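This part of the workshop introduces the protein records we will be handling. A record pairs a protein's sequence with a compact description of its fold. Comparing a sequence with its tokens is the quickest way to learn the format. To make this concrete, we reproduce a full record directly below:
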Amino acid sequence: MTRSVAALVIAFLALSAAAVAQSPYTISGELRDDAGRLFAGGNVCALLKIPSGLNVRDKTCAVSDSQGKFTINIAQPGTYQVIADKMSEHYMPTYLPFYRVSRRPVTEVILGQGTENQTATVTMPPKSGLITGKVIDEATDRRVPNFVVWVWQARDPNARTHLVVNGQSGMFQLPVPPTEPIGIRVVADGYEDWVIAGGMLVSMAGARKGPGALVVPAGQKADFAVYLKRKTPPPDDTSDSSRLPAPIQLSPADSQVFDIFPRHTRLEWNPVPGAISYAVEIESCWPRGSEEKRRLPDDGECINPSSYEEKYGLHETNYEFIFKGAQPGRWRVWAIDSNHKPGMRSPWRSFTYLK
């Protein structure tokens, strides 16, 4: 009797497995990139169209093989959109509203009686751009450990997403849709919001952002040094007599303009008694485009500062580097004492390369 029951159970399981394996509907085909090349390892999903849009929760997916081929087994008939992604490489799924790219065709397949097995060629979405950066308390120059980065499409503020950061690094990285203008807001408790969305922001540290929205092309990166202003200023620590004074900067002169290429730059400063080493911070700034010229005064402030280089352990009173582009930049320096305590930072000095 026991053997008979066991045999029935095995037979039932085998029939169930066969039923699952033999889905009544399939979508098969090839996955290709924008250049028409076969794309391996992409996640290809079929999403049922419903009155409210797409049924993202119950999507059915398959991974393309080494030849770019895929087969998706589907349980019910209907009209499906077939959308691919590979988030690990920043090919983001366009069924998420924030990553939807306008004027891009979508593959649709109808499954039903007589059309149970359909084929389709699916194209990968364009590779996302990246926004990266660090968030800094402008009064103390320390990283802000806890903050939220909100991003949205300028044409549709409801197409948005966000990133919550909790950690001492104060760093963030977020993929954004290429070709689509976006707005950015950085929010942290106790600080004023930092926004790129058509307004202007000026901070004590000279961290002015430019007006308008931002476009990050596919596969490229926009980096930011986000200086947040406290709603309640902290106590002034400039009276801390235990810290070494800021070095006196010598060269280049503030607001120096260079009309040379390559952009070989030499920074020089006076020695500080008691210093065992020095640290230098260099940031790049956005060029003043037509919109910035129209809406921002030309007062030498850095527009959208971006970290370019930080160098520690310098034992000379100079540092040389090659700057990144024909655009403005700025630099500052500070001394480190025998207890490895950083001294007061010098003011920012700006420079501009024309070519």
User: Anything to note?
Assistant: The chain is about 5% helix and 45% strand. The chain has three domains: 23-123, 129-228, 249-353. Residues 249-353 form a domain with the Immunoglobulin-like fold (CATH 2.60.40.10). Residues 244 and 343 are 4 Å apart (CA to CA).
